UniProtKB/TrEMBL annotation:
Residues 20-240 form the Histidine kinase domain. Transmembrane segments: none annotated. This is histidine kinase. The lineage of its organism: Bacteria, Pseudomonadati, Thermodesulfobacteriota, Desulfovibrionia, Desulfovibrionales. It comes from Desulfobaculum xiamenense.
């Protein structure tokens, strides 16, 4: 697997674990602080009072460390700028192409050459696309493995186009992999939800991707038929919404209108 993706997933995993742990520790710590404060107030013995004050100072220190940890774990806000979605696709597909080829999985791209620029953070969107592609790869590889030599050829298709109302960009990643059951479909965006075997999945790829896409005022949707395949659809706002005067502030692109 390429190092960039592994690194991105690992960072996301560490960050989410840290944030989760920090959050859990904060509550009991607040109770300990309040009780200690009460004891310190009531204490008349000067020496014991100083001991309680020291305890309070140390709890405050832990609290500030936890707050720093939670700040660090929070994903960076996207650096939104005029971006070519097709370029993002080209970079991401180049990273997975070799690995797909080795497994006999065909990668097809159908990029709309006239697609106007979107508003987005190219690095974050590349990470999203990598997550979608790697998931598609796993799903196709799993189906091929379960069908043996009788398997139909594995295909992953990546396409970009203008949304139907002409106001946003649409990116789809379609695979003919194992598909997702109706039950699982409602859980795929949950942090740590994974059907992959121990050590192979973190269950963070799609929760992170969903966070990134909605952070762009976009949307991420899944359609799947178990045994037939899956389509992931990413909707993103255009830098200049078509059909709207050019003077419209770019930030007002409305993905709901796609
Ligand atoms: P991970 O890949 O580490 O398991 P993700 O959040 O990326 O975590 O995905 C969660 C789960 O969603 C996967 O374990 C898999 O069950 C399911 N999934 C995601 N994409 C696909 C796909 N294209 N085909 C089939 N299942 C998928």
């Amino acid at each position: 697997l390429n190092a960039k993706l592994v690194q991105a997933e690992r960072l996301a995993a560490v960050g989410q674990l840290a944030a989760g742990a920090a959050h859990e520790i904060n509550n009991p710590l607040a109770i300990i602080y309040a009780r200690t404060q009460l004891l310190e107030h009531k204490e008349t013995d000067e020496k014991k009072k100083r001991d309680f004050q020291q305890m309070l100072a140390q709890i405050e220190r832990i609290t500030s460390i936890l707050n720093n940890l939670m700040d660090f774990a929070r994903p960076a806000p996207p650096r939104i700028e005029k971006t070519s979605l097709n370029d993002v696709v080209t970079r991401a597909t180049a990273l997975v192409q070799g690995g797909l080829g080795k497994q006999g999985i065909r990668l097809e791209t159908a990029l709309d050459p006239n697609l106007s620029p979107i508003l987005g953070d190219a690095n974050q969107l590349e990470q999203v696309l990598l997550n979608l592609l790697i998931n598609a790869e796993h799903a196709v590889a799993e189906r091929i493995a379960s069908q043996g030599s009788a398997a139909t050829a594995g295909i992953i298709r990546v396409a970009t186009r203008l949304g139907s109302a002409g106001r946003g960009a649409v990116l789809t990643v379609t695979d003919n992999g194992v598909g997702i059951s109706k039950d699982n479909l409602s859980k795929i965006f949950d942090p740590f939800f994974t059907t992959k075997e121990e050590g192979k999945g973190t269950g963070l790829g799609l929760s992170t991707s969903y966070g990134i896409v909605t952070g762009h005022n976009g949307d991420l949707r899944y359609d799947s038929t178990p045994g037939r395949g899956t389509t992931a659809t990413v909707l993103l706002p255009l830098a200049v919404p078509t059909g709207t005067p050019r003077s419209t502030p770019a930030g007002e692109a409305d993905p709901q209108a796609i």
